[in-house]
Fold this sequence. Notes:
This protein has helices at 17-24, 39-44, 48-63, 68-75, 77-82, and strands at 99-103, 106-112, 115-119, 122-123. By secondary structure, the protein is of the alpha+beta class. The protein has one domain (17-123). It has a 4-stranded antiparallel β-sheet with strand order 1-2-3-4, covered by helices on one side. Strand 2 (106-112) and strand 3 form a beta hairpin. Helix 3 (48-63) packs antiparallel against helix 4.
Amino acid sequence: MALTRMKALLVKRDINLQMAEEMCFDERALIATNSGGSVELRKSFKLDRAMNTFPKFLKLAALNSYPLEKAIKKITNTPAKKFDLEKRGRIMHGNFADIAIFQDGKIAHTIVNGKIAVEHGKIKIPNNGYILKNNRS
């Protein structure tokens, strides 16, 4: 946590779900997952945090009338800036083409580094990405 200059809130039990949801929409909050959802793990079981973190947040944002543009920024540009990930977090010329396309609240298609990795919910190219490292290392 010293590397990222971030703080953590650890909750063991009796989580106040309403407060946790409100915290998601704070201007200082970003939404991220620590799961890349490796192909090997997906073969044995579906990782909820790998596949559903962002769809759940976007659904929550819609239910709370939170602007879609701000919600998308919290899961793309804001984390990329925070972790100094160059050419990530925004769709623009020269950046990596990492795009998730949602359908009915679930990830239907994913483009990783400009190539279709998931199509109609099925993995097409299993290892098109690579581990991201920030520029502080």
